[in-house]
Amino acid sequence: MKYALVTGGSRGIGRAVCLQLAEMGYPVIINYASNKEAALETQKLVEDKGVTAELLPFDVTSNEEVEQALDQWMENHPDDYIAILVNNAGIRQDAMMVFMEDSQWNNVLNTSLNGFFYVTRKLLKYMLSKRFGRIINMVSLSGLKGLPGQTNYSAAKAAVIGATKALAQEVGPRKVTVNAVAPGYIATDMTQDLDEATLKKMIPVGRFGTAEEVASLVGFLASEQAGYITGDVISINGGLYT
Ligand code: NAP
């Protein structure tokens, strides 16, 4: 059986992606860091669609936790494999670079970039041997154009874009595709502190996007029909110039 794993699946965009993949019939593994309550809510919403949903908490910044959780999952699922991986876990810790602390730099890089590396490396060999896989990396407009106050976040997302392009070339022959999705401003917990009224004046579509809109793009990239799209970065930003 082919499973889908969504890192940071408890809330926001990750939750919407879990629901989208469930609608496509995939049993879903919901990863999260600490918010069990939100993860349980996502699990219930997925199960309401008649699809299996398993919680798999681990911190994507810890290679040890990633290895342990996924080894355990594989032990419990000898006949299944994770065919769809959505590297969605991410955090923002904004500061102008002159004031940026080591921890702000490291936390953001560790989550988006190292998290992508640890989880993807672990699952790749199974996708390659089964000759089918879909890897979708959640990056950002910030990683394409750079945003002031986000040198850490822009660097992390731009690095994942580079890795997406390189990995796509490594694994293309085995029918594993690797793409990145670059949202602009999406209404989630992550953007709650932003001044939406002011920011939306800059967005041609005139509003923040929804997690569901991002999830339907991820759903398409995860589908069989998207087999000829790889190594690409797809923007979803309401027309903000990138
Ligand atoms: P969110 O609402 O803040 O949710 C973040 C998710 O990531 C939560 O599920 C959280 O788990 C999980 N997470 C954080 N650190 C983790 C770790 N170390 N290990 C495992 N899981 C971890 O964020 P969002 O807005 O949905 O963003 C999702 C992704 O989209 C991120 O990569 C973000 O950078 C990207 N993005 C968002 C926007 C936007 O406007 N919202 C725009 C561009 C890109 P817990 O619930 O356990 O904390």
Lay out the secondary structure:
Blueprint: E1 2-6, H1 12-23, E2 28-30, H2 36-47, E3 53-55, H3 63-76, E4 81-87, H4 102-130, E5 133-138, H5 141-145, H6 151-171, E6 176-183, H7 196-199, H8 211-222, E7 233-236
Parallel strand pairs: 1-2, 1-4, 2-3, 4-5, 5-6, 6-7
Helix pairs in contact: 1-2, 1-8, 3-4, 4-6
Residues 7-8, 10-14, 31-35, 38, 59-61, 88-91, 111, 138, 140, 183, 185-186, 188-191 line the site of NADP nicotinamide-adenine-dinucleotide phosphate.
Structure, explained:
This protein has 242 residues and is of the alpha/beta class. The protein has 8 helices and 7 strands. It has a 7-stranded parallel β-sheet, sandwiched between helices. Helix 1 crosses helix 8 (211-222). The longest helix is centred in the middle third of the chain and has 29 residues, at 102-130. The radius of gyration is 17 Å and the shape is globular. Residues 7-8, 10-14, 31-35, 38, 59-61, 88-91, 111, 138, 140, 183, 185-186, 188-191 line the site of NADP nicotinamide-adenine-dinucleotide phosphate (NAP).
